[in-house]
Specification:
The chain is an alpha/beta fold. It has 18 helices and 13 strands.
Length: 393
């Protein structure tokens, strides 16, 4: 199989510095395995690495880079479009895309992420007989409305509410333009089918590669060592973390000799604030590898109240053989099942009480760990991604 493919995306994904970019790279890895004729168009908006490096660029047949321009804040407020669309909408990008389509014929065009849907009018006009596939990373409306529901700031609630309304309207209008939609989990796939009435939806699970470091035995792992992993540069991620740290009974963890380590990219000032403010907690900031921290942790916490959708951190924790305990709603419907692969509680206070309670139930946690590990090991692989993509294209 050697289909000619165009991949439309928002920025250089190869820094893999967020869940979205990791998932994008997963899909590209699958496409490279199936075709040696993949073109890409993207913005130079990645602050750490604006352009794809030479070794990654060789994977593509052609690359097109468009200069990214920041938008005036007022545009987000007064536009009828969702904020993520306003942020990316670009005449220059559409002109470059149209030029590509006028000079090349593609079997398949992948549009990666809702933020690139401003290109749909150009695509519908110039795509010819190309099969058009939308790579969703979330049901974006549900993510927006969840930000409204759990945000503590009234002003932020208003901001996210108006954006959620715009997002739902936009999703309903344009999803029907695609021949096929991909979803990261069962929850999202069912929403596209049931609510947006799109009949052709396929699940593309992310990829996690096991290595010798991950496979090593957890000799030092203890149930009273907790870990929260993530990228805390995004404001809702920080809010989620603070909701957990500010739970009324949070100090009970330290009183029971339970320690928390928080690992992942964050502003140094925020890292310093957390370490100064919360006893029994150590926040590292960015690290080269999370594996050494997971190997010493018996429990992985998923405190995602704000935001929504499937979490790559669930698979990461499962493969590192850390038991998973989450706040209700953090883990949406997927092939990880409550009480079989993870534990879930309604409030942060209840979650903390559960952490304390299960310190004396290592057999329960061992079962959760092994069940989740087997799902992650079998289902979140490059071969599975290739199989899924092969059916799609």
């Amino acid at each position: 199989m050697n289909k000619k493919i165009l991949f439309i995306t928002y920025e250089n994904p190869f820094t893999r510095n967020s869940g979205d970019s990791i998932y994008t790279c997963n899909i590209l890895d699958g496409l490279f395995a199936l075709s040696n004729n993949v073109d890409i168009i993207y913005f130079d908006s990645n602050l750490k690495e604006s352009k794809i490096n030479e070794s990654d660029q060789k994977k593509f047949y052609k690359t097109e880079i468009v200069k990214f321009k920041k938008k005036n804040t007022l545009k987000y407020i007064f536009s009828s479009l969702p904020g993520m669309i306003v942020n990316r909408k670009s005449k220059e990008y559409n002109c470059s895309l149209e030029n590509i389509l006028l000079n090349s014929v593609y079997d398949i065009i992948f549009l990666n992420h809702q933020k690139m849907m401003f290109t749909i009018p150009s695509l519908l006009k110039y795509k010819g007989n190309s099969k058009l596939i939308y790579v969703s990373h979330n049901v974006e409306y549900l993510l927006s409305i969840n930000l409204v529901k759990y945000n503590r700031s009234f002003i932020k609630k208003i901001v996210y509410w108006q954006d959620a309304i715009k997002t739902k309207s936009f999703e309903k209008k344009w999803n029907s333009s695609f021949d096929l939609i991909t979803a990261i989990s069962e929850h999202d796939a069912n929403y596209f089918r049931d609510i947006y009435k799109h009949l052709n939806v396929q699940i593309l699970r992310p990829i996690f590669n096991l290595n010798d470091e991950v496979n090593s035995i957890h000799d030092e792992r203890k149930l009273n060592n907790l870990i929260i992993g993530g990228s805390f540069d995004w404001k809702p991620k920080r809010e989620n973390l603070l909701l957990f740290l500010n739970a009324k009974n949070f100090k009970e963890l330290e009183n029971n000799d339970i320690k928390l380590i928080i690992v992942g990219r964050a502003d140094p000032k925020f890292v310093d604030f957390v370490n100064r403010t919360y006893s029994g907690v150590h926040m590292t900031g960015g690290v080269k590898s999370l594996t050494p921290y997971y190997q010493k942790s018996g429990l992985a916490i998923v405190p995602e109240r704000l935001g929504g959708g499937f979490k790559l951190k669930i698979v990461e924790a499962a493969l590192h053989r850390s038991a998973i305990i989450a706040i209700k709603g953090a883990i949406t419907e997927c092939n990880f099942i409550k009480d079989q692969h993870f534990l879930e509680k309604d409030t942060f206070e209840e979650l903390i009480l559960e952490i304390i309670r299960i310190q004396n139930e290592p057999e329960l946690l061992d079962n959760l760990i092994e069940n989740a590990f087997m799902v992650a090991k079998q289902e979140y692989t490059l071969n599975k991604m290739i199989d899924s993509l092969e059916k799609i294209i």
